[in-house]
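In line with agreed milestones, the collection of sequences with tokenised folds has grown. A representative record is reproduced below.
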Amino acid sequence: MLMWLKRGAMAVVILGVFYGLGRALEDNVIEYVLRIVLFCGINSILAVGLNLINGTTGQFSIGHAGFMAVGAYTTAYTVMHLSEALFPGQAELALGQTALVFVPALVLGAVAAAFAGWVVGVPSLRLRGDYLAIVTLGFGEIIRLIYNNSSRFGGATGYSGGRPLGLPIYTNFFWVASVGLLVVVLIGNLTYSSYGRALEAIRDDEIAAEAAGIPTTKLKVLAFVVSAATAGIAGGLFAHLQSTIQPNDFKFDKSIDMVVMIIVGGLGSVSGAVLGAFFVGITLELTRDLSEYRLISYALLLILLMLFRPEGMLGTRELRIPFVNRSKIGPA
């Protein structure tokens, strides 16, 4: 009981620090830099979730942008209708009012994405390797095309909630940092639990894992559903950092960026996925001024990294993560 009280008090302190730090950044940091930090934080949520499938479980999903799209559109749609139902006629909401609207919308976005993950996971996760990659790629493109042809969600021109000013900008440093820490803690504890060890056994030798009595398909679907839910949360945060969300925001290259993040950080490392997300996000911004040479220089940098550090920045090692059972984590 005392341990939980201490953890609760620590969580409250951390949330207070996030809020204060967010206000300080908004007052003292230019908007462009803060926006990059927020995008990197959202990418971290995507990378940590995808790492559970590609890194810990050893599967190969390249359609995660589809789950992100489901979360983004579901969250945005829910926010617009819920805010009108609870606070009709109010253009600006206070922090407490925002939480009453934004938190349920993010949860619903995560549930919708998790359901989509279950729908694609149940029939496809009996497949392995390239076959699974093709199925997830096809699913991601199907989702994008559905939104692209949906008049309810604005079609190819995008969804702005029917407002002249577009979607309300709720995503800030406090929300990204708080939700990001929650996702890292949940995925971290899952990774280093008995379920995580079973997922690693599937990655190392699926046939041997089945022979040992591990329900491989069931656990792979579980990992897929949890990973899809985190992508949905990231999509919801992304939606309310923009004034409009468009189907082209969730193209195939978005899924590839996620895969690059976890490879750069280190497959199987939760904290490595976070580092990889920040590395990729910041690198893309630093090379933006190179114009047509931007992607070439970015690709060369990745090639050099893979040549000199093929296991990624952290490999399978972990940095210390608060609220995660450290006794099951390898040396930092």
